[in-house]
Amino acid sequence: MGRFNRQNIVLLVVGVILAALLLAIMQWLDQPLRTAAAPRGIVSFELAGSSAAVRDIMASWGLEARRNAALSLKVDYAFIVVYALVLFLLCTGVAHQWPLSYPITRRLGFILAGCQWLAAVLDGVENMLLQNILGGATAPLLPLAARWCALIKFGLIACAWIYIVAAGGAAIARRPPNRGTRS
């Protein structure tokens, strides 16, 4: 799996469309979450890291915004599966574009593809922790654990995008121009 064949291209297109739709829904839900205490909305909550920061954010939200946050976290579970699949397909597809004579570039793509499932698991754990916090859990380690899950997740996703752009761009640049014959 992972080559840019017809089946994977269809999966990729459907995945990108679903990701865009889910992202639009989450952006809409995120609007009331953007406050002075949470300038980046739900992302501020994900990265809060301490009970004091969480208290400040939740106090700035109010009840309706907290409902939006809870719904956003639920929608995010679908988004997690979709983005992990899209990034997996892109990383493996790019890796397959490199000849066997470039084993490090190929291997890196496959490793980063697998890491997207780790990012998805971390994102799911992060969501569960944040849902517990929204539900009233006050254990001081919950915000810190959520923050570390988020940081590692964002790092793995960023590495995948860097690989896709850099290795994908280089693979395209390496191809000889198509000089079809015309009469």
Break the fold down into its secondary structure elements and pairings.
Elements: H1 6-30, H2 42-46, H3 51-97, H4 103-134, H5 141-174
Helix pairs in contact: 1-3, 3-4, 3-5, 4-5
Q: What are its keywords?
A:
single chain; 183 residues; mainly alpha; elongated
Question: In words, what does this structure look like?
Answer:
By secondary structure, the chain is mainly alpha-helical. 32% of the residues are buried. The protein has one domain.
The helix-strand sequence is: HHHHH
Rg, please? 20 Å
Largest sheet: none
Domain count: the total is: 1
**Class by alpha and beta content:** mainly alpha
Low-confidence stretches: none
pLDDT averaged residue by residue: 93
How many H/I helical runs? 5
**Coarse shape:** elongated
The end-to-end distance, rounded to whole angstroms, is 39 Å
Strand content: under 5%
How many beta-strand segments? 0
As a percent range, the share of helical residues equals over 70%
Quick synopsis:
By secondary structure, this protein is an all-alpha fold. Helix content is 78%, strand content 0%.
